[in-house]
Design a protein that fits this description.
By secondary structure, the protein is of the alpha+beta class. About 25% of the residues lie in helices and about 25% in strands. The strands form two sheets. A five-stranded antiparallel β-sheet has the order 1-2-3-6-7, with helices on both faces. It has a two-stranded antiparallel ribbon with strand order 4-5. A hairpin with a 7-residue loop joins strand 4 and strand 5 (about 100-105). The longest helix is centred in the first third of the chain and has 16 residues, at about 25-40. The protein is globular. Bound molecules: zinc ion.
Length: about 170
């Protein structure tokens, strides 16, 4: 089932997400919905708080479904390593129409559980490292605008508030 994606302004996006106690059928169902929703948009990553569920789960697929082996499912992820720095343009499904240049680690690895509840490690550089940090931020209630300097952040937030006032957000 495709779930609606929350946009900046919804408090769930700004709250730290809770750890998953157990991979129940309900959690498996949530993960399947997140993957379906990510592919439908289409997007390359989605975190559970973006569909209104404050749990530590995210999915990433840089191939957007073209390569099924490219799908990363992470439950209760923790950082294993982060190194270096890259600067690239970035967007978010919760801020449609907005992008900004955001500093991210050049290489990153994350440890967590897969959909079957088995421990796995995902490591990557470039776009994957960026996506890992972006989704990990979502689980801590942080959006990419929160990584921007004050003026840049304020500009985007002001535009969004204006859209919201005219019912376009
Ligand atoms: Zn995002």
């Amino acid at each position: 089932m495709i779930r609606p994606i929350l946009r900046l302004g919804d408090p769930v996006l700004q709250a730290p997400a809770q750890p998953v106690a157990d991979i129940t059928p309900e959690i498996e169902h949530l993960i399947d919905d997140m993957v379906e929703t990510m592919y439908a948009v289409p997007g390359i990553g989605l975190a559970a708080p973006q569909v209104g569920v404050s749990l530590r789960i995210f999915v990433i697929d840089l191939s957007v479904g073209r390569d099924r082996n490219g799908l990363v499912v992470m439950v209760n992820p923790t950082w294993q390593e982060r190194e270096g720095m890259q600067l690239e343009e970035e967007g978010c499904l919760s801020l449609p129409g907005f992008t900004a240049t955001v500093p991210r680690p050049a290489r990153a690895s994350v440890r967590g559980l897969n959909r079957q509840g088995e421990e796995h490690v995902v490591e990557g550089s470039e776009l994957l490292a960026r996506a890992l940090q972006h989704e990990m931020d979502h689980l801590d209630g942080r959006l990419f605008v929160d990584r921007l300097r004050g003026i840049k952040r304020d500009l985007i937030v002001r535009k969004i508030k204006k859209l919201a006032r005219s019912g376009k957000w």
